Task: inverse folding
């Protein structure tokens, strides 16, 4: 059985989580979300978690060394993976290449989902989360039965601090500024696949899968 190693790039709201899960399910490999790893640390309310919380609330990027350490300890290299949210800097991209090289393998493709900032704001502002059980909803694509309450536990839903409009805009522009070197890094390697992230989930998926299947020679 072939094993694939992929990463999804793109600004907040581009659909990396949705498309990443579809891709991981199609290829039968793990889906690794960097943001989830960081938020678990925040939920533990450790000293490190509180530092991360302050960074996320400002919409800034978590320091490279911390993110690389988390990925190194969690990445299922032999099983393959789809990464969401990593790498976000040239340093992280080089660290990922070095880690894979230790296992005599490399990244198969970096998939860049692109959307304009206004679409990012619209999408993310419709997201809601349960503070008790962690369930995540989207008022447009995955709404709860009651727009104010969690389907699982009945707790009142909230808008995360990093999902507010002013923070979204800051996160978007911070991402673009910091990730441009990563995009060029993978473009220079010939493994960058660019996908228009606007449109319905199915429309974006069809574009993405067509490119990935061609790149990975999947029939």
Result:
């Amino acid at each position: 059985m072939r094993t694939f190693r992929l990463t999804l790039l793109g600004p907040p709201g581009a659909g990396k989580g949705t498309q990443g899960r579809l891709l991981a399910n199609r290829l039968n490999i793990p889906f690794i979300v960097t943001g989830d790893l960081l938020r678990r640390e925040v939920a533990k309310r450790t000293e490190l978690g509180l530092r991360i919380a302050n960074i996320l609330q400002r919409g800034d990027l978590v320091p490279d060394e911390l993110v690389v350490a988390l990925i190194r300890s969690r990445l299922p290299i032999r099983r393959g993976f789809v990464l969401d949210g990593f790498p976000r800097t040239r340093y992280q991209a080089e660290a990922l290449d070095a880690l894979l090289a230790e296992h005599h393998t490399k990244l198969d493709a970096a998939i860049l989902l692109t959307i304009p900032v206004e679409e990012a704001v619209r999408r993310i502002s419709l997201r809601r989360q349960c503070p008790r059980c962690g369930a995540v909803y989207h008022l447009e694509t995955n709404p709860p039965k009651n727009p104010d309450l969690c389907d699982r536990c009945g707790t009142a839903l909230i808008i995360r601090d990093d999902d507010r409009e002013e923070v979204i805009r800051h996160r978007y522009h911070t991402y673009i500024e910091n990730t441009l070197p990563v995009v060029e890094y993978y473009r220079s390697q010939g493994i960058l696949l660019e996908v228009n992230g606007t449109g319905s989930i199915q429309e974006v998926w069809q574009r993405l899968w067509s490119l990935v299947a061609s790149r990975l020679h999947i029939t």
Q: What stands out?
A: The chain has one domain: 5-115+173-216. The chain is about 50% helix and 15% strand. The domain at 5-115+173-216 is CATH 3.40.50.300 (Rossmann fold). The mean pLDDT is 92.
